[in-house]
Amino acid sequence: MQRVKAIISYDGTNFSGWQVQPGARTVQKEVEAVLTKIHKGQRTSAIASGRTDSAVHSVGQVMHFDTPFAIPEEKWPKAINKLLPPDVQVKASFYVDSSFHARFDAVEKEYRYRVHNVKEKDIFRRNHVYFYPYPINVEEIKQAASYMVGTHDFSSFCASRTDVVDMVRTIHEVRVEEHGDELHFVFRGSGFLYNMVRIMVGTLLEAGKGLRQADDVPGIIEAKSRPAAGNTVPGHGLYLWDVSYD
Amino acid sequence: MQRVKAIISYDGTNFSGWQVQPGARTVQKEVEAVLTKIHKGQRTSAIASGRTDSAVHSVGQVMHFDTPFAIPEEKWPKAINKLLPPDVQVKASFYVDSSFHARFDAVEKEYRYRVHNVKEKDIFRRNHVYFYPYPINVEEIKQAASYMVGTHDFSSFCASRTDVVDMVRTIHEVRVEEHGDELHFVFRGSGFLYNMVRIMVGTLLEAGKGLRQADDVPGIIEAKSRPAAGNTVPGHGLYLWDVSYD
Asked: CA A101, A102, A103: angle at the middle one, nearest 5?
């Protein structure tokens, strides 16, 4: 058997997230069905770097699977994509050591969140950006974002329905980029709690709108309480952008 | 009664085109259902400048409808959009003379066609551009396009299933614009035959790919025969961009 590491992109619009669940269309379900078909019915699992939620997109999700076939590594995307539906696509693949694990070996993840800051909604982007029609102060947002960098207990930025115990994470960078009429939030960190990016963006937008001040952020972190932070913005603006390994 | 002229945009992905047809989700059906609801059950028709096909989008479709309500004209979009699904949107509205007719009074239409000219398909644009992974010669396309301008019998550029008798149309402009990795074809004309824009784009792409020469276009028009022209490109790259009235 050989282990394959693959980069996988998907448009989350019509998926109930990554992870297999009964009665739902999920990315893992589609991918495993294809891999199992390629392996002539031999059940083949795909393990990702982590789940993504309903409507959340991926540009650089990483997964691994095992195969007895010795085809050249670069042939895998074409073989898999031929059988996948049009909203999911394997972009690259590599043979890796059999000890490689897409989830446990990830050392950094990058998420991006797209906010469309215009007065009138663009129906063509409705599934891919968060429409936010209010005036926003980008400098205030950048200032607020700077307080999120570092190693903190991020309990305030974690959805209450979680069974995670250790709430300490290290955020390496929070960057805010202006792309025409869109604002892109870039988050790089060692790991993220459930809904963490979406709560961070919700909090930053509230600072941008003047509902909070940038200087409130240290206190929000300190509170270690979900109600201290802002709203959770919708999943459809979120992209798992990249996963790094040593 | 007052007549309302309205600009309507829709993402054609999940529509079987504009026109009402049994058992299908169409834009006209959604719009008329909303107008009828607003008019408390009084059946209200929406007449567009013309049909659009399945998967074809609109940025500037024009329609008209009649109403006994005397609300300010600019209030209509909000009232209608509140009840419309997220893939269709009224962008503007105006009271017009009761003789105004969205279809019969149109003097010019503009269509645009988006071609994504890259090697690897972008799944996020899969419903909004035509993925064309071949090298193309833009200058050859521009040259070929120039022959399409003017008043011609466009039988060669009309799908065979049509009951239209007069095949003469006047094309005012064919423009080819490069937008990053996309090529946009802009067509302005007095009117268009069934599938005309999509057959023109198919023919132009074949010239760009080297399968035809720009100088072949006058002969293709002269042939007045559908097989003389190129393939019909898919509907999902096409946008009804603007409709003009005197």
From this structure: 95
Interface test with A, best of B31, B123, B126 (most A CBs within 10 A): B123
Task: With beta carbons under 8 A apart, name residues in chain A contacting B89.
Answer: 121, 123
CATH of the domain spanning B2-96: 3.30.70.580
Domain ranges of chain B: 2-96, 108-245
CB-CB under 8 Å, B120 with A87: no
**Subunit contact A89:B9, Cβ cutoff 8 A:** no
Distance from A11 to chain B by nearest Cα, in Å?
Answer: 6
A107-245 maps to CATH 3.30.70.660? yes
Cβ within 8 Å, pair A123-B10 = yes
Average pLDDT, rounded, for chain B: 96
Reported as a pLDDT band with limits 50, 70 and 90, residue B164 is confident
Fold of B108-245: Alpha-Beta Plaits (3.30.70)
- Residue B216 catalytic? no
Q: Which three-class secondary structure state does DSSP give residue B245?
A: strand
All residues of chain B having their beta carbon less than 8 Å from the beta carbon of residue A234 are none
Confidence of residue A224 (pLDDT cuts 50, 70, 90): very high
Q: What is the mean pLDDT of residues B54-65?
A: 98
Pick from B87, B124, B127, B182 the residue to mutate for testing the A interface (most A CBs within 10 Å).
B124
Same fold, A2-96 and A107-245: yes
> Taking a C-beta distance cutoff of 8 angstroms, is the pair B217, B148 a contact?
yes
CA gap B124, A88 in Å, rounded? 9
CB atoms within 10 A of CB B36: 15
CA B71, B75, B79, B85 torsion-angle sign = positive
- Residue in chain A closest to B91 (alpha carbons) equals A120
pLDDT of A130-139, one tens digit each? 999 999 999 9
Inter-chain residue contact A89 with B123, CB threshold 8 Å: yes
Q: How confident is residue A165, by pLDDT bands cut at 50, 70 and 90?
A: confident
Q: Which residues contact B67 (CB under 8 A, 6 or more apart)?
A: B1, B2, B4, B39, B44
Question: Per-residue pLDDT tens for B87-111?
Answer: 999 999 999 999 999 999 999 999 9
